[in-house]
Design a protein that fits this description.
Blueprint: E1 3-7, H1 12-23, E2 27-32, E3 43-46, E4 60-66, H2 72-81, E5 84-91, H3 118-134, E6 139-142, E7 145-147, H4 156-164, E8 169-172, E9 178-179, E10 181-183, H5 184-197, E11 203-205, E12 212-213, H6 214-224, E13 231-234, H7 256-261, H8 268-280, H9 291-299
Parallel strand pairs: 1-2, 1-4, 2-3, 4-5, 5-6, 6-11, 7-10, 8-13
Antiparallel strand pairs: 9-12
Helix pairs in contact: 2-3, 4-6
């Protein structure tokens, strides 16, 4: 039985990864501070990843799934504490690409500061660099917006709330801005493929090949909730993130190299339906932002 280490393991992506590999029959260790409920079937290593001491001494891991590294310090502290491991996969972000570069972004696009993602993006760049300097055979995955069950970020859940409350939806401009998604299960499936095939390439953009307009995405979310979306278009110069769950920033990742290894990804409607069914029973697990309150106070007169 393979032993794997998942950093985090209690929230969204890291929890999904931990549960996925438990179901796959792996011996799963999770590294976190034990401030939230743990997954069933995992072994907890209780510690702050930046103050590990000898917590990992004596362990050999077949794979380290580093889901919670946000900067170089996170990576270096973990590497300093690890005794031995075979493979290391870091979940990075599309935020490493500057918004002004030619799109779709390829893995060869020069990384740099992005005015929308700011420090989050530059910290991820430093995390990647720290890892590749010390573990050249590690793998780095750069996803767009991740979605699926366990998602505690108020994205599709916000639209589901609007649908369930039978609210009109306040749509930025004409709703043509496109979003690129990737189901968290596909993230795990692609990590399986990497571990099996050990490709010579070590940095991959990952995501659905096709993007979707925000209008079509909202329409789909409403339909999943058995509602029909009625739109109010917001053309006023109002910061989009005050009333909508994404920045006014359209980007696209070139995922051709991922598709060569994994041609099929989860159908978006199927994935969103799974997310909706999870949300119905787990609304308290989502960190809600005051979009609806802002709409009711500032946009009702539009």
């Amino acid at each position: 039985m393979k032993k794997v280490l998942v950093t985090g393991g209690t929230v969204f992506v890291s929890r999904y990864v931990a549960e996925y590999y438990v179901k796959a029959g792996y011996e799963v260790f999770v590294l976190n501070r034990n401030s939230r409920q743990q997954c069933e079937g995992v072994t907890l290593i209780e510690a702050d990843r930046n103050a590990l001491g000898d917590k990992l001494k004596g362990y050999h891991f077949d794979v380290v799934f580093d889901v919670t590294a946000y900067n170089a310090k996170d990576v270096n502290c973990l590497l300093d504490a690890l005794d031995s491991f075979d493979d290391y996969i870091l979940i990075s972000s599309s935020a490493v690409y500057p918004e002004y570069c030619k799109q779709p972004f390829t893995e060869e696009t020069e990384v740099g500061a992005n005015k929308f993602w700011k420090k989050y993006g530059t910290d991820k760049i430093e995390a990647e660099a720290a890892l590749m300097e010390r573990v050249p055979n590690a793998y780095i995955l750069r996803p767009p917006y991740l979605y699926g069950s366990l998602n505690n970020v108020y994205r599709e859940a916000f639209v589901f709330d609007c649908a369930m409350q039978e609210r009109k939806f306040y749509l930025p401009k004409d709703g043509a801005m496109k979003l690129q998604f990737f189901h968290v299960k596909d993230l795990c499936r692609f990590m399986d493929i990497i571990l099996e095939k050990k490709p010579s390439q070590h940095i991959f953009n990952v995501g659905n090949k096709e993007s979707i307009s925000i209008k079509d995405w909202v329409t789909l979310c409403y339909r999943i909730a058995d509602k029909e979306a009625e739109f109010v278009n917001v053309y006023e110069e109002i910061e989009q993130r005050k009333y909508f769950s994404f920045y006014d920033y359209e980007y696209a990742l070139d995922v051709q190299k991922q598709c060569e290894l994994m041609p099929v990804t989860e159908d978006l409607e199927v994935g969103l339906r799974e997310a909706y069914n999870w949300y119905l029973n787990n609304q308290d697990k989502v960190i809600k932002r005051p979009y609806i309150e802002f709409i009711d106070k500032e946009l009702k007169e539009i």
